[in-house]
């Protein structure tokens, strides 16, 4: 596999993480270096681990996961997005109870949801007899970089647009989930 092909795959896989990071940046009043590190680390780590898991699983598990992977990603993104919208509308002052998508279960669920497609890439690479370790590292690094950029873009737009950005962030997550669902159902 050429380096250009690998970079293209990594960028394609990082797009969901990038979009979710923009949504997370919109919801946070202040984006700290710690939050940036947490989100980028987890998104990069999960994007690197999923192809390895897919590669190791081989074809036996692929036939069971492939029919539902898009539903899993949709469900996770819709649930987290819905929770963000609910919390934003419930808290009129916009301050108390604000959810931090870079912590706890939200972080884990977002990491899984944005990296499920990397599982299929790992399965494909196994079928092509490609050694997984170098591609996994590249995929993880690209996802982490795109996450940092997305989080900062979201933060800047959030600062410009003011309160209730959590609603927009939640709608973005739900939209990404719907996009994943439509792509898989149409394909």
Please describe the topology of this protein:
Blueprint: H1 3-27, H2 33-65, H3 69-90, H4 104-127, H5 133-161, H6 165-186
If you had to describe this structure to a student in words, what would you say it looks like?
This protein has helices at 3-27, 33-65, 69-90, 104-127, 133-161, 165-186. It has 187 residues and is mainly α. The protein starts with a helix and ends with a helix. The mean pLDDT is 82.
The largest β sheet comes out as: none
Mean pLDDT: 82
Total domain units: 1
Quickly give the structural class: mainly alpha
Helix content: over 70%
Strand proportion, as a percent range, falls in under 5%
- Provide a count of the helices: 6
How would you describe the shape? globular
Radius of gyration, CA atoms, in whole angstroms: 17 Å
Distance between the termini: 25 Å
Unreliable segments of 5+ consecutive residues: none
Order of helices and strands: HHHHHH
Total number of strands: 0
In short:
The protein is an all-alpha fold and 187 residues long. Helix content is 83%, strand content 0%. The protein is globular.
Considering the chains and any ligands shown, give keywords for the structure.
single chain, 187 residues, globular
């Amino acid at each position: 596999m050429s380096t250009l092909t690998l970079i293209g795959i990594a960028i394609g896989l990082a797009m969901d993480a990038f979009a979710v990071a923009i949504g997370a940046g919109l919801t946070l009043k202040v984006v700290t270096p710690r939050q940036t590190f947490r989100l980028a680390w987890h998104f990069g780590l999960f994007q690197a681990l999923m192809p390895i898991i897919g590669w190791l699983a081989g074809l036996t598990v692929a036939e069971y996961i492939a029919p539902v992977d898009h539903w899993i990603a949709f469900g996770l993104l819709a649930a987290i997005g819905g929770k963000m919208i609910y919390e934003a509308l419930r808290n009129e002052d916009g301050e108390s109870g604000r959810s931090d998508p870079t912590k706890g279960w939200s972080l884990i669920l977002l990491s899984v949801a944005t990296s499920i497609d990397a599982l299929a890439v790992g399965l494909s690479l196994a079928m092509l007899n490609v050694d997984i370790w170098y591609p996994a590292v590249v995929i993880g690094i690209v996802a982490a970089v795109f996450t940092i950029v997305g989080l900062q873009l979201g933060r800047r737009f959030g600062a410009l647009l003011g309160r209730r950005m959590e609603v927009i962030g939640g709608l973005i997550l739900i939209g990404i989930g719907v996009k994943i669902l439509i792509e898989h159902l149409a394909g």
